[in-house]
Amino acid sequence: MNATKGTAMKWIDANEKLPAESERVLLFTPYPIFGDDHACIGNKESITTCTARINRKKVTVFTHWMPLPPLPTKLTQ
Question: Which residue has the higher pLDDT, 66 or 76?
Fold first, then answer.
């Protein structure tokens, strides 16, 4: 399920709600795991299984997610 046209895109707290099992979503991490990038594409499994050690504490890598926007309807070449 993708965000629909005219719908504001908002981050969803992973502690409050998870995406559908096979839904690909945009994921956010507050940690510098990807260098300067704090987002990537993943799914529910990414949220529930990816952990890291930050200051000697095991933490969940992804804290927020949002549906992907719809694909472009007109492609230019």
Answer: 66
